[in-house]
Amino acid sequence: MHYIFRLEKLVRDRIPELMSEPGNVLEVLTLDHKAHIHALKEKLKEEVEEVLNAHTREQVIEEIADVAEVLDALTLKLSIKKSEIEDKKRAKAMRKGGFDRGLFVKTVQLPSDSDLALRFLQEPGKYPRLEEV
């Protein structure tokens, strides 16, 4: 008797080789450019979820390393230079700041006709409206 499991996910390049043992049968596809980019984005979500579920410092380090690996692959696939990313980080930090202080906004009250309120209203899943005052 054999079990067949559906994985349907991007794996590291050596995983098929490492899983290859007598009796194991893997169905492996090589993705085209567009599908590879999509799979990398899905993998990024998976790896971020693993960071969120990590409990020890060592687990967090391992999962952040996986996130970095996926980001490196995605930037390579999209021909993005690391300097482009660093430039964007610096510009955003200059404009909006970093995340060093741990500031956390719980709610914001805005005039209903403000540009920011209108932007928030366009994304109710991201910015749920609590009430009108």
Keywords:
133 residues; mainly alpha; 5 helices; 52% helix; elongated
Quickly describe the structure.
Helix content is about 50%, strand content about 0%.
How would you describe this protein?
- The chain is mainly α.
- The protein is 52% helix and 0% strand.
- It contains five helices and no strands.
- The chain has helices at residues 15-19, 33-53, 57-77, 82-96, 115-121.
- The N and C termini lie far apart (65 Å).
Total strands: the figure is: 0
Radius of gyration: 21 Å
- Report the span from N to C terminus: 65 Å
Which whole number gives the mean pLDDT? 94
Our estimate of the beta-strand percent is under 5%
Biggest sheet, in brief? none
> Percent of residues in helical segments?
40-55%
The H-and-E topology, N to C, reads as HHHHH
Note the overall shape: elongated
Which structural category do the helix and sheet elements fall into?
mainly alpha
**Poorly predicted runs:** none
Instruction: Tally the helices.
Output: 5
Assembly form of the protein = single chain
List the helices and strands and how they pair.
Layout: H1 15-19, H2 33-53, H3 57-77, H4 82-96, H5 115-121
Helix pairs in contact: 2-3
